[in-house]
Amino acid sequence: MAKFITIGYGDKTGYERTDPALRDAAHAHDAQMKAHGALIGVAGTPVQVRNPDAMAVRTTPGAYLRSDLPIAGFAVIEAKDLQEAIAMVSKTPCAVAHGVVEVWPLQEMP
Length: 110
Description:
Layout (H helix, E strand, L loop, with lengths): L1 E8 L2 H5 L3 H16 L3 E4 L4 E4 L7 E4 L9 E9 L2 H8 L3 H4 L3 E7 L4
Antiparallel strand pairs: 1-5, 1-6, 2-5, 3-4
């Protein structure tokens, strides 16, 4: 099975305008994915880390990347291929509640 990193983007406005029954089903889907081994988490407050030439660690509060929607959560999932990964995340809260989910194939280092 291949591994994928997913990044869910969404905001409260999109979430609240989604039918509560659909949101509940999406959360149940997340719970089922988690029960089957997916590592799923809600995004906390980010910090940027730099250490140029391994000489001095510098941190900057906040995200490096910017988007119209805030990052809501992350997951590491396993699927047989990209199409199956897409099908899996298409039923998650960010996907159904007017957000978006990125799916990144994870190429593990040897």
